[in-house]
Amino acid sequence: MVYSPTQQEGHVAVFGGSGLGKTSALLIPTLRSWNGTSFTIDISGDICKNVNMQRKMIYEPANLNSVPYNIFGTIDRMEDEDDQNEALEEIAFLLMPDDERMSDTSKFFQVEGRKILTAALIAFYHIGMDFIPICEKIVRSGWKDLFQAIDETGYNKATQYINSFEGASEQNTAGCKQSCDIVLKLFATNEKVKKTIRRPSVGEIDFLPVRIENHNVFVVVEDSKLKIYAPLLHIITAQSLEYFSQRSNEKKHTILFCLDEFASLGKMEITDALRKLRKKRIRIMMLTQSMADIDLIYGRDERMAMMNNYRFKVVLGASDTDTQEYFAKLIGYQDTKKYSKSKSASQTTQIESEAKEWAVEPAELDRLKKELVLLHPDGYMKLKKNFYYK
Ligand SMILES: Nc1ncnc2c1ncn2[C@@H]1O[C@H](COP(=O)(O)OP(=O)(O)OP(=O)(O)O)[C@@H](O)[C@H]1O
Ligand SMILES: [Mg+2]
Question: What is the 3-state secondary structure (H, E, C) of the chain?
Answer without folding.
Answer: CCCCCCCCCCCEEEECCCCCCHHHHHHHHHHHHCCCEEEEEECCCHHHHHCCCCCEEEECCCCCCCCCECCCHHHHCCCCHHHHHHHHHHHHHHHCCCCCCCCHHHHHHHHHHHHHHHHHHHHHHCCCCCHHHHHHHHHHCCHHHHHHHHHHCCCHHHHCCCHHHCCCCHHHHHHHHHHHHHHHHHHHHCHHHHHHECCCCCCCCCECHHHHHCCEEEEECCHHHHHHHHHHHHHHHHHHHHHHHCCCCCCCCCEEEEECCHHHHCCCCHHHHHHHHHHHCEEEEEEECCHHHHHHHHHHHHHHHHHHCCCEEEECCCCCHHHHHHHHHHHCEEEEEEEEEEECCCCEEEEEEEEEEECCCHHHHHCCCCEEEEEECCEEEEEECCCCCC
